[in-house]
């Protein structure tokens, strides 16, 4: 059973916090209140606030990122995580290279959520792009999270 789930991106100010907070919202009414959801970045500067555009598009859904502070992946005891979901294959490869013993619990979000092996595996970084790009990234993440939650529910039966 998955108790601790970690989302990983580059700076932990856009994609991974959006995934973290969206999943908290999606699972808020579920019976699985024991799921601990967090996020970190491979190149994160610890303590940074969420990106302004990421916060704005999340606020459109009533989700407040103002409490989020970035964490660097090196601050986390990865062996304690049950599942580590990255935003890109590059993130996954970097983690597996540094932690080969954890390879069986590291996937991209899209790899884990989808059984379609033809699908693009990466969620592109919207950093520096338009608010509309952040909005479409948010929706892409949300779609994948809903697939993931359904898969986890089916798996736990």
UniProtKB/TrEMBL annotation:
Family: Belongs to the low molecular weight phosphotyrosine protein phosphatase family.
Keyword field contains Secreted: no
Active site: 9 (nucleophile), 15, 125 (proton donor)
One Gene Ontology molecular-function label: protein tyrosine phosphatase activity
A UniProt-annotated Pfam family: LMWPc
Keyword Hydrolase appears in the UniProt entry: yes
Domain of life, source organism: Bacteria
Name used for this protein in its record: Protein-tyrosine phosphatase
InterPro entries in the cross-refs: LMW_PTPase, Ptyr_pPase, Ptyr_pPase_sf, Tyr_phospatase_low_mol_wt
């Amino acid at each position: 059973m998955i108790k601790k789930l970690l989302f990983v991106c580059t700076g932990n100010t856009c994609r991974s916090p959006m995934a973290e907070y969206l999943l908290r919202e999606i699972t808020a009414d579920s019976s699985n209140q024991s799921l601990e959801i967090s996020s970190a970045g491979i190149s994160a500067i610890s303590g940074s606030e969420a990106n302004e555009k990421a916060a704005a598009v999340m606020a459109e859904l009533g989700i407040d990122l103002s409490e989020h502070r970035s964490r660097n992946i090196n601050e986390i005891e990865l062996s304690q995580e049950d599942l580590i979901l990255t935003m890109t294959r590059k993130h996954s490869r970097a983690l597996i290279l540094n932690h080969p013993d954890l390879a069986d619990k590291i996937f991209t979000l899209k790899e884990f959520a989808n059984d379609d092996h033809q699908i693009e595996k990466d969620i592109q970084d919207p950093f520096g792009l338009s608010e509309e790009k952040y909005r479409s990234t948010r929706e892409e993440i949300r779609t994948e999270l809903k697939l993931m939650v359904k898969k986890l529910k089916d798996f736990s039966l």
